[in-house]
Amino acid sequence: EVQLLESGGGRVQPGGSLRLSCTAPGFTFNNYAMSWVRQAPGKGLEWVSGMSGDGDNAYYADSVKGRFTISRDNSENTLYLQMNSLRGEDTALYFCVKAPEAPYGGLAFDVWGQGTLVTVSS
Amino acid sequence: SYVLTQPPSVSVAPGQTAKITCGGNDLGSYSVHWYQQKAGQAPVLVVYDDSHRPSGIPERFSGSNFGNTATLTITRGEAGDEADYYCQVWDYRSDHYVFGSGTKVTVL
C-alpha cells in the first residue's frame, strides 16, 4: 500500500521559515508527480505547489510564489517544501499528495498523506 | 484565475439520492475530480476524470460533467457518506490546480 508521511510542521513566528518533508516508502517515487495541498482550520482545500516526477518542473499558487520552494530527492523518495517569509494566513494542515503519473498537470491526486500542521503566530 | 462554485451544504435522507454540483465556466471542457473528506481525516479520491471510480469506491458514487456544471451523485445515501466533498480541476491556462469551496453533505 502506498503511504505518504509528512513531517516538519510546527509553530513559527511571522517572517520565519520551515521546511516540510514527505517520505514515500515502498514505491518508485520518480514515476509520479507530487504536490502540496493545504487546509486552513475550518476551511477548504487549497493547492499550494506541484512538481513533475523528474523534478524538472515546479509550479506554485500565486499566494505562495516567491516565498515557498518545492523540491524532491528521488534517490531518497522524499518531497520537500521550503517555506520562507511565513504569514498568519499560511497557518494550515499541509498535505503531501501523489498523482498517478510522472508528468505534472491534469491528473487527480490518488494518494494523500495525513498532513503536518503549520502554525504561524507570534 | 479559474473559479469552481459549490453549494455550502446538501442534505439527504437515508436511502435517497444526493446530488452535489460544481459550477465553472465551460467546465465540460475540463476533467473534474471529486474528493470526500470525513471529519478529522485526509481527503479521499472518489471520482476522477468526470465519471471514473478508483478501486474500492462503491458504485453508489458517480459523476457527470456537461456544459458549465459537474455533478457528483450519491445513491442510497448512508450515514457513512456524511462528509465534505470537493471538486477539483487542473487549469491548463495557469498550470494551477483549483478546488471548489466544498459541500457539506448531511444524512438526516
Describe the structure.
The complex is a heterodimer of chains A (122) and B (108). Chain A contains no helices and eleven strands. By secondary structure, chain A is mainly β. In chain A, strand 5 (45-51) and strand 6 form a beta hairpin. In chain B, strands 1, 3, 4, 7, 8 and 9 form a six-stranded mixed sheet that branches. A three-stranded antiparallel sheet of chain B has the order 2-6-5, with no helix packed on it. Chain B is globular and about 40 Å long. The model of chain B has no long low-confidence stretch (mean pLDDT 97). The interface between A and B is medium-sized, with 22 and 25 residues.
> How far do the termini of chain A sit from each other?
40 Å
* Residues in helix, % of chain B: under 10%
- What is the strand content of chain A? 35-45%
The counted number of beta strands of chain A is 11
Specify Rg of chain B, calculated over alpha carbons: 13 Å
Q: How can the largest sheet of chain A be summarized?
A: 7 strands, mixed
Task: Please describe the structure with a list of short key phrases separated by commas or semicolons.
heterodimer, A: 122 residues, mainly beta, 7-stranded mixed β-sheet, 4-stranded antiparallel β-sheet, 11 strands, B: 108 residues, 6-stranded mixed β-sheet, 0% helix, globular
Task: Give the gist of this structure.
The complex is a heterodimer of chains A (122) and B (108). Chain A has 122 residues and is mainly beta. Chain A has strands at 5-7, 10-12, 18-23, 34-39, 45-51, 58-60, 68-73, 78-83, 92-98, 111-112, 116-120.
